[in-house]
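Bit of a strange request maybe. I'm writing a small parser for structure token strings and I need a real example to test against, not something I typed by hand. Could someone generate the tokens for this chain?
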Amino acid sequence: TNDHKGIDVESQEKDQNSLLNTVKQLIKIRKSYSCFNLDGKTEYIEKGYPLIYKRKDEKNTATVMINPSNKPITRAFTGKVSYSVNCDVVDNNVMLNAQSFLITIE
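Reply from user aminoacidic:
Good idea to test on real output. This should exercise your parser:
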């Protein structure tokens, strides 16, 4: 029997919300926006829960919001949502649900 059903690559590739596809999407975002390169500058907006920081360079500004807690948190944001996990977005406000993150690009 397969005791690791759903953990194999084939199953992960079929699941849009799998860890494999999440990592692939994050790599794609990192390669698409120069602010995530080594030359990008980091500015911390909030440290703790949630962790919110900006990555900036001469071309792009990305805002990353991470909520590792078990409690939902609401924050305002600017820019276009590039990727999110477990978030509810309405206009320029986001509900960062438990164990969630959001990446916006300006």
